[in-house]
Amino acid sequence: MRFTRATVPTLKEKPAEADVASHELLLRAGMMRSVAAGVYSLLPLGRAALDRIEDIVRDEMNRAGALEVVLPILHPSEPWMASGRWQAYGPEMMRLKDRKGTDFCLGPTAEEIMTLTVGRTAPSYRDLPLNLYQIQTKFRDEIRPRFGLLRGREFRMKDAYSFHTSDEDRDRTYERMREAYEAVARRCSLETLVVEAPTGLIGGDVSHEFMVISDVGEDLLVYCTECGYGANAEMERHAPGRRFGSAGDEGLEEVHTPGMVSVEEVSDFIGTTPEAMLKCVLYVVSAEPLAVFVPGYREVSEPKLERALGTSDLHAMREDEREQFPGITVGFVGPVGLDGIPVLYDLEVKGAKGLVCGANRPDYHLKGVAEGRDFEAARLADVALAVQGDRCAECSGGLLLAPGIEIGQVFKLGTKYTEPLKAYFTDEDGVARPMVMGTYGIGTTRILATVVEQHRDEKGIRWPGAVAPMPVNLIVLSPENEEQSRAAAGLEEGLAAAGIEALVDERDASPGVKFNDADLVGLPVQVVIGKKLADGQVDIKLRHSGERADVPLGSAVQKVQEALDKVV
Which residues does 226 contact at the CB level (< 8 Å), separation at least 6? Predict the structure, then answer.
């Protein structure tokens, strides 16, 4: 492939729209261009890298026993209405009407369509299990598309759906797909954590996410390095690793704290720490107030709170809502003598003493508060986020917290879709029963961006060998020089004969521009044909390590092959 014909419009400066490294580098390296917010065109090198990733995904899916199909992108509303997700999906679903006024959507996922398709075959138990997948474009109208390919409105994804006669059979496929996803990550040179995850709009009762630790990750992971436990922060379980309150048996005392409402302000004024503070966070749940008490050094986890209450109809009380509940002294709410408002306590509050909390009147706090003596934590639930230093609930090892990028997620769906869509199979007794399902998604454009996030330096991308758009960048420093031009053509031909594709930079540009672009584009091996050719030598450089060597032109193909063997 010739650089001058390959449409590789590199950029020297960071584009204003780029907000993370992968976004910046994919734009600067000429691999993609923005069309609209969250919508991108992939140029030849970007498409080539995506093809490598999707080939890996396809290979692992086939190895796991899944069969590839093609489903429509345009989905009629009826199956979505039958499953209950037409309304539940809300504004993220891109909806449209045909000329007859019939409702359709651009598929954000395909549980309904795949279930409908399989259900219409009326399979026997002899036909199951069945695992079908597709690699296709999906659409979600994100409220705030950002981070380039990491959160777009149009993206590529592999989604698979398995159908079974029993939970036990589904569980076997679930494990095979989990292993396949771990293999995909390894082959793409990504280190992943497999963590427990919420099921969200997909549904089901068990789910795991495949996460890559990254500073730009939008999810918080909680994991143990000793036993392998890991969970999305929305699902984590922890054992407190620090003492809440104090060990002393202090008496109750009211303290004047004028205008002080934050944990930090009050603890500094009283001469204590957030570990001794009992924090109140006010919520409105189904139009009614709720006081949630957590240790002062923790935050409320709203997903945990939703599960504890059995509803998602909740939000932190807004300032304009406070006047609706005049009995609440905002900023000074405490559990002692609190009347007229439902209360929920985090598990850690039980048995704590030596606490500082609001006194339920303006500008006053109480110190020396003890649960069981001064108030009763009767309604308890795990509603607080983990913090660094907590212990693992499984093995008591230390927990670590880190941001992560989700590249894939798997779900045990049960009969969530097969029952309402009447996707039945005939069992051994001739009885029609709903099939048991699993669903498995992995984002291929998201993997593309994540690889760039994880494999880069200050000069540009450092592509791992398995997903690089092509393996070699062949740089001709003086293409007008007939000797260099002939050597480049011969070397390109020799590499092609060995099955190695090269991007040949024969542009009329300075060596500095070519070297900078080579590092920016980041193909694994760079071969430079320049002045050293007069001595029969070319220069070979490994992009990931910077290692370089002069080699005879006649052995360059062999040396390139050896260099590629060193690429991660």
Answer: 392, 395, 397, 398
